[in-house]
């Protein structure tokens, strides 16, 4: 069935006049890198999150990599995480020779199951890496208890969850653990590409700022380096977009929550669809994507094709990463994480951004219902 409607976007950034104005301000200032806009973005972000400091970097992956290094994790160490995530959550460990140890997810939150995580801890475990998948806050009190009991660290991958609030009413990333965020164009707020790491203390912040800048301490001259570093800098042009986005982050989050609410209402009438878990206050998801789960045995590729024919992009999202060749090579195989594998086989991300209207949501829901009925 074809419709004479323009295709919908799967995701869309919200860029306005203030983003344009601040980018122009940087371009005209002549300070395109390591200038005042970078510092302003870090300060504004830290203030919004309610933390003392935040270090901006070139991507969420760079933030995770520097986080792994900040703990000193390396060869011989194991870190426990969920396989139901974006591949960067595990790659950041591989960069430093750390073994990613996967444990299964909770079927409601789709995040690492604390009991499974605890069971996966061995004498080689030096950390936990909880991921707030799809913007759903992890069970941080449980992970903090495990970390305290076992004397290990926590690196939070909150790259999908800026603005989420956890079960104790705290913004994700503000509990004093090392936490990371990402600003790719489909995220709650974007800088095009970019990331942020929340350090545990000022000493860690100093090392992070040095390592993102080729190992050059803040008080050192050009071409003077006293440790191994990387070029993980965020430019001031990029930071300018970030400053404008943080200033209206509450509004950006509210816009996404409004669209998610429309989806929840409209799709609750579509038989066979499993919706994202409802919030249990004070916890609150931050809407990154809108993922649904199709019934067991449904032809997901057929559904994606059928939606596509009606101008509705949808993605099989996410795969369980333990089956990717470079991770399977560590000994992982199909059947090891049944919950993650079942969810991965059935989950589908629908078009999601704050610009979707009630009519758009209705169009997606009708097309999805038709596709499922036909399959
Ligand atoms: C859970 C998770 N971790 C890490 C990243 C990496 O962020 P980036 O793409 O900015 O490197 C992403 C990006 O989508 C992510 O979803």
Oligomer: single chain
- Share of β-strand residues: 5-15%
Adjacency order of strands in the biggest sheet: 1-7-6-5-4-2-3
Rg over CA atoms:
21 Å
Helix content: 25-40%
Secondary-structure class: alpha/beta
Notes on the protein architecture:
The chain has 375 residues and is α/β, with parallel strands linked by helices. The chain folds into two domains: 17-247, Aspartate Aminotransferase, domain 2; 250-374, Aspartate Aminotransferase, domain 1 (Alpha-Beta Complex). The chain is built from 13 helices and ten strands. The chain has helices spanning 17-29, 36-49, 60-71, 88-94, 114-120, 140-150, 202-211, 236-247, 249-267, 300-309, 325-328, 338-346, 358-374; strands at residues 55-57, 78-81, 99-102, 125-129, 153-157, 178-182, 195-198, 290-293, 315-316, 347-350. The strands form two sheets. The chain has a seven-stranded mixed β-sheet with strand order 1-7-6-5-4-2-3, with helices on both faces. Strands 8-10-9 form a three-stranded antiparallel β-sheet. The radius of gyration is 21 Å and the shape is globular. 47% of the residues are buried. Residues 59-61, 64, 85-86, 88-89, 131, 157, 159-160, 182, 184, 195 line the site of pyridoxal-5'-phosphate.
């Amino acid at each position: 069935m074809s419709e004479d409607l323009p295709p919908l976007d799967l995701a869309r950034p919200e860029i306005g006049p203030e983003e344009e104005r601040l980018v122009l301000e940087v371009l005209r200032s002549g300070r395109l890198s390591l200038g005042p806009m970078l510092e302003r973005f870090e300060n504004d972000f830290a203030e919004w999150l309610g933390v003392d400091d935040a270090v901006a970097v070139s991507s969420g992956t760079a933030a995770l990599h520097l986080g792994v290094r900040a703990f000193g994790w390396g060869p011989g160490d194991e870190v426990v995480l969920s396989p139901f995530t974006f591949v960067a959550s595990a790659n950041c460990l591989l960069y430093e020779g750390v073994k990613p140890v996967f444990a299964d997810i909770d079927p409601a939150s789709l995040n690492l199951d604390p009991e499974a995580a605890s069971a996966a801890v061995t004498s080689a475990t030096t950390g936990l890496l909880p991921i707030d998948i799809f913007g759903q806050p992890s069970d941080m009190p449980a992970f903090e208890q495990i970390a305290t009991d076992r004397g290990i660290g926590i690196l939070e991958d909150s790259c999908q969850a800026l603005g989420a609030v956890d079960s104790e009413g705290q913004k994700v990333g503000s509990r004093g653990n090392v936490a990371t965020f990402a600003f790719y164009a489909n995220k709650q707020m974007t800088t095009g590409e970019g990331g942020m790491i929340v350090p545990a203390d000022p000493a860690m912040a100093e090392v992070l700022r040095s390592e993102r800048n080729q190992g050059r301490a803040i008080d050192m001259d050009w071409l003077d380096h006293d440790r191994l570093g990387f070029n993980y800098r965020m430019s001031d042009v990029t930071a300018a977009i970030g400053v404008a986005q943080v200033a209206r982050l509450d509004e950006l989050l509210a816009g996404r929550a409004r669209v998610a609410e429309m989806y929840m209402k409209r799709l609750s009438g579509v038989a066979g669809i499993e919706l994202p878990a409802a919030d249990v206050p004070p916890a609150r998801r931050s809407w990154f994507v809108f993922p649904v789960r199709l019934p067991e045995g449904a032809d997901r590729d057929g559904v994606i094709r059928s939606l596509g024919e009606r101008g509705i992009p949808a993605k099989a999202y996410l795969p369980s990463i333990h089956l990717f060749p470079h991770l399977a090579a560590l000994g992982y195989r199909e059947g090891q994480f049944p919950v993650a594998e079942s969810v991965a086989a059935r989950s589908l991300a629908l078009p999601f951004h704050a610009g979707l209207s009630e009519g758009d949501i209705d169009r997606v829901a009708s097309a999805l219902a038709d596709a499922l009925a036909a399959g």
